[in-house]
Design a protein that fits this description.
The protein has 137 residues and is α+β, with helices and mostly antiparallel strands. 33% of the residues lie in helices and 18% in strands. It has a single domain, classed as endopeptidase fold (from Nostoc punctiforme), CATH 3.90.1720. The longest helix is centred in the first third of the chain and has 13 residues, at 35-47.
């Protein structure tokens, strides 16, 4: 596996606060604020690197793209390497996957919770709900 060496940009803490504040009122939207695009956009903001290109605008497109990648977990592993299964290893700014109704969804660690797009607005599941965590930078 050939994953990029990612480094956190200076000032990432302020960028995280701004990202979460911007996304807080936004509802779920395929390709722009969905389970994958949320984490992907955060990694771009955190590191300056686009690690995965979202090319879908609806559920069918997302399903097709994720099937080609081998699923959500495989897509993130190809992007960021091997994850940890221990939620206690999550640091602020890291990304993870949680199970929501049988689907793995991307989230970002806030330090005290995770954050991810909900149907109507940003949701904040507890740290212990994450199944996989990737250290970013």
């Amino acid at each position: 596996m050939n994953t990029p060496m990612l480094h956190r940009l200076p000032g990432w803490e302020m960028r995280l606060a701004a990202f979460l504040e911007e996304r807080r009122p936004q509802p779920f939207a395929w390709g722009t604020n969905c389970c994958a695009s949320f984490g992907i956009e955060w990694v771009r903001i955190l590191t300056g690197e686009t690690v995965w290109q979202v090319d879908w605008t609806d559920a069918r497109g997302a399903k097709t793209a994720l099937e080609r990648a081998g699923g959500m977990r495989a897509a993130w592993e190809a992007t960021l390497g091997r994850p940890s299964q221990n939620w206690r290893e999550a640091r602020r700014g890291d990304v993870g996957l949680i199970d929501i109704d049988g689907r793995l969804c991307g989230v970002v660690c806030t330090g005290t919770t995770f954050a991810g797009p909900g149907v109507e607005k940003l949701e904040f599941p507890p740290l212990r709900d994450v199944q996989l965590v990737w250290r970013v930078g």
